[in-house]
Give the backbone structure.
Amino acid sequence: MSEKEYIIFWFRRDLRLLDNVGLSKALAQGKSVLPIFIFDNNILHKLPKDDPRVNFIYNTLQNLRQELNNKYKASVALFHGNPLDIYKDLIKSYKITAVYTNHDYEPYAIKRDKEIYDFLREKNILFKTFKDQVIFERNEIVKADGNPYVVYTPYMRKWKETYRRLSLNSIPKVDNIGNFISDIDLPNVSLHDLGFINATIKAPEYDDSPKIIQEYEVTRNYPAIKGTSLLSLHLRFGTVSPRLIIKKAVKEENETFWNELIWREFFMQILWHFPHTVTKSFKEKYDRIVWRNNEEDFKKWCEGKTGYPLVDAGMRQLNKTGFMHNRVRMLVGSFLCKHLLIDWRWGEAYFAEKLLDYEMASNVGNWQWVAGCGVDAAPYFRIFNPTTQITKFDKDLKYINQWVTDLNELTYPLPIVEHKAARERCLNAYKEALN
Ligand SMILES: Cc1cc2nc3c(=O)[nH]c(=O)nc-3n(C[C@H](O)[C@H](O)[C@H](O)COP(=O)(O)OP(=O)(O)OC[C@H]3O[C@@H](n4cnc5c(N)ncnc54)[C@H](O)[C@@H]3O)c2cc1C
């Protein structure tokens, strides 16, 4: 092992060079920086072999390697295994003085990082972590008494007030690029090495143009039009900078778009303060609901065969593309929990498996919102009517016709539940649990 000292920068949910806080800090130390990414077996082994998210990460990393190679004669080292074992090997090959990385707030990541921190500390290696994927994290936005906000609107107001007060609108550049390790032959892996194959589902391009942001209010509720940014996947994996996107929202003066981005941070701080909500309802008594959990109904919901065209269109869009419009996510979620009386956790798990933009905090938060059991959730007795939702949001049936091509055929299923009866059944089940 050479005596040269290195700093590792560990990429995780921040797969970009621009405005990457941990990476800029690592490069600013004046030592050679070895960028790495670990395909973590603890996560990969649960995923289907053609998982499009693994493909997306993989392709993004190959592009990053190419970009670093072309611009700076550098690269990213790719590993596959258990992160702790990878670190045990790395310290045998390089004299490492510090590992820099960005915060991850999910329960598994917190536990993993603690393990790595303990291991490195024993070896006298620093483990330095930074806030990167949000503007405000953990307890940076809390009530005057120090307690977390569990209602969105006051959180959002405080968030904006703090953002303005601190003038947080500058975007750091990638400086000190000469400090990347000058080695273009760093370890690589193939998709095949990881046990995966090419996915048929591809990631959508995002659109953060002024037009999309300025017209957001008018367009965002209609699933048939391209009226939202499709940024979710990119914010999830950090292929765009959250600071840059917020800055654009502020510049275009679109409060609604800005508010949606703040929902993302709201749910992240909820997950951090209340990690038990991954499996338990935030409002405890909602866990007394006696769900029907009928497996056949669940299967029909998953396949988009409920006989309710807007619900079916949403589920078929999800199955075919890994994406579903937010309006329709709210409807299919409500339909599952309320019309079919199936536990929100089943829906949450199905979305986690299928959504390209799956993000634990947003998924759990929104599912609990839909079921009525979460923070700042809609009252449980407000039940979407799956038919009038069509009149409101897809009156020309454009979206439905795109995904439910058998709508007018005899094979298209009859509704699996009758709306009024299902509504009554739901209200009774909720009332019984909550009284
Ligand atoms: C049941 C259900 C499950 C969901 N699961 C996820 C998930 O796993 N991952 C995820 O990113 N979003 C989730 N959402 C929120 C929302 O549907 C998606 O963020 C949005 O549809 C993504 O499309 P977009 O990027 O075009 O959003 P835009 O409408 O363009 O919004 C811009 C960004 O704001 C954020 N955002 C918007 N709405 C929400 C919201 N309700 N909660 C949190 N952040 C929001 C996202 O980061 C989004 O990319 C879920 C919503 C529901 C109702």
